[in-house]
Amino acid sequence: MKLVGIAMLVVSSACLAEEPDSYQPAATNVWGAQYPRVDSNGRAQFRVKAPNATKVVVNFWSVPKLEMTKQPDGFWTVTSAPIVPGFHYYTLLIDGAEVTDLNSHTFFGGGKDASGIEIPEAGSTYYSIQDVPHGQVREIWYNSKVAGSWRRALVYTPPGYDVRTSERFPVLYLQHGGGEDETGWTKQGRANFILDNLIASGNCRPMIIVMAYGYARHAGRPAPDLTGKPFGSPEAMRAMEEMASAFEDDITQVLIPYIDSNFRTIPDRDHRAMAGLSMGGMQTFQVTFNHLDLFSYIGGFSGAAGPLVLGNEKLDAKTAYHGALADPAAFAKKVHLLWLGVGTEEPERMRVGLLRLHTSLLEAGIQHVFYESPGTSHEWQTWRRDLRDFAPRLFQQATQ
Amino acid sequence: MKLVGIAMLVVSSACLAEEPDSYQPAATNVWGAQYPRVDSNGRAQFRVKAPNATKVVVNFWSVPKLEMTKQPDGFWTVTSAPIVPGFHYYTLLIDGAEVTDLNSHTFFGGGKDASGIEIPEAGSTYYSIQDVPHGQVREIWYNSKVAGSWRRALVYTPPGYDVRTSERFPVLYLQHGGGEDETGWTKQGRANFILDNLIASGNCRPMIIVMAYGYARHAGRPAPDLTGKPFGSPEAMRAMEEMASAFEDDITQVLIPYIDSNFRTIPDRDHRAMAGLSMGGMQTFQVTFNHLDLFSYIGGFSGAAGPLVLGNEKLDAKTAYHGALADPAAFAKKVHLLWLGVGTEEPERMRVGLLRLHTSLLEAGIQHVFYESPGTSHEWQTWRRDLRDFAPRLFQQATQ
Question: Is residue B129 part of a domain?
Fold first, then answer.
C-alpha cells in the first residue's frame, strides 16, 4: 500500500525512557490500556502488538500519519509531535489492512467504528463533565413510514426535565457529519456536557436536543451497494444526495411529529432550531430553507449550502432555495438566527467555500453570524466550539 | 502466532457462486458492508482486505475459529459451517495482531470494542424490534462518593413512563459480564426490546431496568496496570475481586439512592430485583445476599456464587453469605425469587459449577428456579433467554 505524507515524527525509545511520568493514558482508551498516552504538550505515544507484521502505521485522518517502529518484544511504538487539542479519529494500517487499535474505544466515523484519541486542551472545561446538574441522553426508536423501517435517534433532555413536568422546552435538531451517525454529537462531540455546562452557568436556555440518524432511503428503494466505494467517492456522494431527500421527508414528516408527541416541546417554529456539521450542515440548509414554517434558527458548522460551498459558484440569493433568501428584510424577520462556522485550519476547499458563502450572504444583505475556530481543522474541536457559541444564541427571541 | 483448534470449515469459492442470493449482510454490520453475511442455515461468510498479510484468522471466542484464504484481489475470504444462533464476538488475527473487522459494528467485550456477528434464530422475535410501544434507554451520569468519580449507567424506562407520571415502577438492576460494560445488555443482549415485547404481550410487569458499570475502585486507590494481563488472567481476576467490594458499595450506597431520587421507583425491597450474567451473576449474589434489606428477587445467569461455582466445593448453606441461606423457610419468605440459569453447551467448568450449586440448593431445601438454555454456550443467546424467562417472574408477589 502506498502511503503519501507520513510525517517522520518518531523519537528514540531512549527519549521515551527519560520522561515516563509526564504521559497519561488517553481519556478515549478502554479501561486498563496504558497506550495510547498523551503528555501535557499534546504529544501522543502509541504501542501496538503485531509480532509478525512488516509495516504498521497510525493512520490519522486529519493530522499527520505516523509510521511505527518494531521493537524486539513484538510491539510497535511511535511518538508524535504535539497534536492540536481535541478528538482525532485514527485507524491502524497493518500490512495493508485498515483496522482499529484495540487500546482505544471506537467512535463511528468514516462509515466504520474507528479508533479515536482525545488530546486535552489546557484550561478548557466546557466540554468536560462538571459537578453541575446533568441532562439525560435517551435512545428512542420510531417507526418511519417514510423509510419503511425503525429508526433510532438520541434525545438530550435538559437537567430537571423529569421534575419540572409542567414545563415545555424548545428543541434543537443537531446532525452529525458524513460517515458518522447519531452517536457522534455525544460520544465525540460531548454535546450533552457542553449543554449541561452552558445551562448551569445561565448562558443557555434549557432545551431538548434531537440527534437523528442522517441517512435514509424511501421505503421500497433498494440499498446502494457501497462495497469498495469509500466515503467521498462519486458513488457514495450520489447515494448521499439520494438519501438527503428521504432524510428531509423523514425528519419533517415523521421525526418532528414524533418528538412533539413524545416530549414536552414547544411545538412551533419560534422554538425549533436545526444545525449540523459538514454533511449535516448541508442537510440543515436543505431542510430548514425548504421548511421555514418549521424552523427559525439555523446553523451550518463547517458545511452549509452544499454545492454552493463545494463548487466554485457564489450564492445567488435571489434564486437559491426557491427564493427563501430573496428578500433580506423578510428573511431577517422570519429567521431569528443564521449561523455559519469554520475552522481556520480546515482544508482549503471547505474554508474557501464557507468564506464564499459568508461573502455572498453579506453582499445579499442577509444577516448572519460567521464564526471562525482558531487553529482547528475539519474536526470535532471545531464543532464543540461551534455548539458553545451557537447554543446560547438560541430561543432568545422566542416569546415563551 | 500459534493457533490451536482452528476448524477447517472452508468451502470452495465455486460453492459460493452457486448460491449467492441466499446470503444476507449480518444485522451487526455497519451500513453498506456486504460482509460478513449469513445464510438461513447460519453459515457465515467473511471477507477482509489485507493485501500484504501472510495469515488472517476469524478469531471467534465461543465458536470455532476460521482460517481465511487469500484471494488474488488482496481480499481474504472464508465460509463457516452453520453457527449456533445468537450474537458472537470475534476479532481478526492479522499477522499476529488482534484487531477488529471494520465491516462490523463494535461491541464492548473482553475489555475491548470487538467485532460481533448476529446469527438469526428462526422464528425468534422476542428480542427483535416489533411494532409495539417502546421504552427508552437513558444514559445517566452520577457522582460517586464511593469511587470518587463520575460514573455512567444506562436506564431502561418502560413504555408510557413519561405519560403516566403519577405511576411508580419496580426496578431490576441488571449487570453485564466480565470484560463487558453497561452497554452490553442493550447492544448485545437487546434487553430493551425483550422487555418491550414482554410488556406488550402482558407477560411482564412494566419495570425500570438499571444497567450499571460493573467495575469500581474505592476513591484514592490507584488503578491496577492490566497491560498484558488479559481477561481471565490471575492479575485481572484479583483486580476484579478488589473491584467487587467497591462495586457493592457504589451500587448500594450511591446508585440505588440516585435512582430512587431521580426516577419514579417503588423504593422498597419488594420492588427491587438484581440479576447479572457471569461476573455480573457473582456480583449479584454478593450484593443481594449481603443486602437482603434491599432486594427480594435474585437472578444468576451463567454465573452466581463465585468461588462456589468456579471451585470444587459444594455450597455450605449453613455458613455461606453470613448465614443468609441457613434457614430455608425464612429465606423463602424473604426472597420471592432465586433464579439460576446455564446453557447446555457452556464450558464444562461453568456448567458443572452451576449444576453443583443447583444441587446444593436442592439439598439445603432452598427454593429456586433452575433454567437450562438448550444448545447455547456462555454467550448472549443464553442470557437473552434467561431474561425472557426471568423478567415475567418479577414483582408478582409484590403488594403494589
Answer: no
Q: What is the mean pLDDT of residues B225-250?
A: 84
User: Do B219 and B93 lie in a common domain?
Assistant: no
Confirm or reject contact between A194 and chain B (CB < 8 A): no
Grid cell in block for residue B31: 451500513
Residue-wise pLDDT for B70-80, tens only, equals: 999 999 999 99
Distance of alpha carbon B208 from alpha carbon B135, whole angstroms: 9
**B187 lies in some domain:** yes
Q: Residue A192: its chain B contacts at CB < 8 A?
A: 139
Interface of A with B in 82-101 (CB under 8 A): 91-92, 94-100
Same domain, B70 and B146: no
The answer, yes or no, to whether residue B166 has pLDDT greater than 60, is yes
Model pLDDT for residues A218-261, shown as the tens digit of each residue: 999 887 777 788 877 888 877 777 888 999 999 999 999 999 99
> A169 and A106, same structural domain?
no
Measured between CA atoms, the residue of chain B closest to residue A261 is: B163
Average pLDDT, chain A: 90
CA quadruple B255, B256, B261, B266: dihedral positive or negative?
Answer: positive
User: What residue numbers bound the domain in which A294 lies?
Assistant: 136-393
Test the B interface: residue of A130, A131, A139, A168 with most B CBs within 10 Å: A139
Interface test with A, best of B100, B107, B125 (most A CBs within 10 A): B100
- Average pLDDT in the A334-355 region? 93
Closest residue to A34, CB basis, from B1, B139, B225? B225
Chain A residue numbers touching B30 (CB-CB < 8 A): 108, 111-113
- This model of the complex carries an ipTM of 0.91
Per CB-CB distance under 8 Å, the chain B contacts of A225 are 32, 34
Going by pLDDT thresholds of 50, 70 and 90, the confidence category of residue A387 is very high
Please state the pTM of the whole predicted model.
0.92
Q: Which one of A68, A91, A119 terminates a domain? A: A119
B142-152: pLDDT as tens digits: 999 999 999 99
The mean-pLDDT minimum among A5-14, A106-115, A281-290, B234-243 falls in: A5-14
Same domain, B310 and B192: yes
Give yes or no: residues A150 and A113 share one domain: no
For residues B37 and B141, state if they share a domain: no
CA dist A185 and A380 (Å) reads 9
Contacts of A215 in chain B (CB under 8 A): 31
Residue A237 contacts B where some CB pair is shorter than 8 Å: no
In total, how many domains does chain A have? 2
Contact yes or no for B52 and A54 at CB 8 A: yes
pLDDT score recorded for residue B199: 98
B209 and B107 in a single domain? The answer is: no
Domain CATH code at residue B225: 3.40.50.1820
Please indicate, yes or no, if residue B398 is contained in any of the structural domains: no
B184 and B107 in a common domain = no
Rounded Cα gap, residues B32 and A228, in angstroms: 10
Residue B177 located in a structural domain: yes
pLDDT in tens, A164-194: 999 999 999 999 999 999 999 999 999 999 9
Q: Which of B68, B139, B193 to mutate to probe the A interface, most A CBs <10 Å?
A: B139
A374: closest CA among A395, A352, A345? Answer: A345
Domain-terminating residue out of A84, A119, A154: A119
> Chains A and B: how many Cβ contacts under 8 Å?
160
* pLDDT band at A321; cut points 50, 70, 90: confident
Burial zone of B125 (CB within 10 Å; 0-12 exposed, 13-18 middle, 19+ buried): exposed
